[in-house]
Each structure stands twice: as structure tokens, then as C-alpha cells.
Task: structure prediction
Amino acid sequence: MTGSLPSSMAESTTSAMTDPFGRTIKYLRVSVTDRCDLRCFYCMSEDMTFLPKSDLLSLEELDRLCSAFIAKGVRKLRLTGGEPLVRRNVMSLVQSLSRHLDTGALDELTLTTNGSQLEKFAVELRDHGVRRINVSLDTLDPTKFRAITRWGDLDKVLRGIEAARAAGLKVKINVVALKNMNEDEIPSLMEWAHGKGMDLTLIEVMPMGDIGEGRIDQYLPLSLLRARLATRYTLTDLADDTGGPARYAGVSETGGKLGFITPMTHNFCESCNRVRITCTGTLHTCLGHEDASDLRKPLRASNDDTLLAAAIDRAIGLKPKGHDFIIDRRHNRPSVSRHMSVTGG
Ligand code: SAM
Ligand code: SF4
Result:
């Protein structure tokens, strides 16, 4: 029949994605922009050079790319960046992607944000089917917040978090553990978050991208932090129900959940079910590798998704077994040259 694909090709656009190590890919993280309204010192250098806007995929192209992954079995989609909420018209992308929630093809549409624009967008996000979001917040001290983000306004973020909660979104707080910066504040941050019914996840600094200084002065192993917390709180390991890199503990004193993402001290690769695409359409199958596959070319080469699906299959077939992050005195340089804001955290 004219216009329909031969069955072998149709299959290749929809076949599930399983990598050579038997891991089925169900989770896609999409960096919709490399730009950000903050400059967190562990993420970017102050004079960060951003991609020319002409290199970016349009929102329509991002939608098509995400939809191709959903057709191949992705069940969870996270928009990230850079700061996803500074991409112009990003709500139109959220709205169009929400059709996959309506059809049941997608279980969850979510995002990771620094919270600065949440006051403006919380209600719209909820109206487009977003139910849970992650907000990154490393301190509740306005002076430290400014020092970490270089020019952020803590109040704006706190108002954003309240707007999200008022809209009925479930908020999880992500905290990067930073030596000599917020390490003493972790208990109060946790009590604040748990007091509002928000889970909190601690993240180890990862050596991604040149940030104009070494990592050794920032890196705080979470094993150490956990041992310190255990002297004050009763932490009980919870069964892993997310399939993600975080390990969770219940905190008896607060009744909340505390997550640990420990790429440096504990390798979480064996259960990795995720891949990432950048705002230029590059697919990274591992956060901690230089591996990259260009999907923009096959996306633009044709209006149907046959070439795109074949390129995705090829890339998934090359997903590495695990990452090679190292931070020590001899390796005080990025293990991976891309910044987190390019790949999407
Ligand atoms: N701008 C949004 C935000 O801050 O939530 C989304 C993008 S940001 C790159 C995603 C997450 O990555 C944030 O929680 C941020 O703290 C974290 N992050 C950035 N650079 C990192 C690094 N080098 N090591 C560990 N986490 C990092
Ligand atoms: Fe921006 Fe997020 Fe990176 Fe901070 S961590 S500079 S908010 S992208």
C-alpha cells in the first residue's frame, strides 16, 4: 500500500530498546536548552559560552524526537537543561507531550528545575499532566545561595516551591553535597524538606565539564555524610522501588525519605534504564562517558521516523556497561568534557 512502511521497517521504528547488557531503556531525559538563569559554581563557569540558538532543535523537533523514543518503549520522560523553564515557549512542548499521557503511552512527564520560574509555571505544568517535579536547592541561606548560584535569589525559588505545592505538584528537593559549603546545613535542609512532606536527595559532585577550578575542593563523599547523619538520625534502608540511581533511607525522626545518589562511591550502572538527549539532538547513552550519537541528522533527513529509529537502535546497541568517574589529586580534571547543563542532570 502506498505510504505505509514495509513491515520490517515499521517494526524497527517501534521495537523496544534493549542494550547489549540486557537493560531495557524506559527512561529518557531531555535537555531542552543548555542555557540557565543561574551559574551554580559546580555546574558552570561564570563566563560560560552557550550554544548558538541556530544549533538547537526546534520545540517541534524535540517533540518528534521524544515521541520516537516513546514509540520505542520509553515510559518516563524528564525535561531538564540548563534550566528547562527558561526555554522560550517550553510550555507548548509540555502541552504537546502530554498527549502521550492521555493515550497511556507514557507513565510520567516530569522535570528538573532550579525553581526560579516555578511561580510563573506551576499551574500550567499541573494542567499539562505533570504530577511530580525535582527542584534543585543546595542551601536555605540567602548569602550562601548567592555564592553557590553566583546571582540567584533564594526567595524567588522558595516562592516557586510553594507555588508548585499549592498547585498540587509533589516536589522532591535535590541537594548537591558540597565540601565546606553546605555540609553543615544538610540536617536543617532535610528537616525543612521533610517538614513540608518533600523527599530530599543528596547528590555527589560529578567531574563533568571544565568549570574553571578543580573538583577536589568540592567533592564530599556521601558515605561520610551518611555516617555523620546516622549519629543524629535513625536511617533505615528502604527497598529500591525506582530502578534509578538513588538509594533511599527512611528517617524515623522526620518521617521523610532521604535519597543518596553516589556515582563516585557506588556504581549504579548495572540497573541503568535511562538515556539522555541534548537540545541539539545528540544522544548520550551514559552520563559518565564521552559516547555520543547524532540524531539530528536522521531526524532532519526525512519526515518519517525510519532513519531516526535505526539511528536510535544503533546507539542503544553501543550503550557502555558503566561510567568511569574519578576524582582524586591525580585526576582533578573533568572525566567527561561535557557540562551537566549540556547533557541534562
Ligand atoms: N537547572 C536545573 C536544575 O538545576 O535543577 C536542571 C539542570 S541541572 C544540570 C540538574 C541537576 O544536576 C541539578 O540538581 C544540579 O544540582 C546537578 N548538577 C549540576 N552539575 C553537577 C555536577 N557537576 N555534579 C553533580 N550534580 C550536578
Ligand atoms: Fe543552572 Fe541547574 Fe546548572 Fe545551576 S545546576 S547552573 S541551575 S543548570
Summary: The longest strand covers residues 170-177. The chain has one domain: 23-343. The longest helix spans residues 59-71. The pocket of S-adenosylmethionine (ligand 1) is lined by residues 36, 42-43, 80-81, 83, 112-114, 136, 174, 176, 203, 205-206, 208, 340-341, 345 (CB under 6 Å).
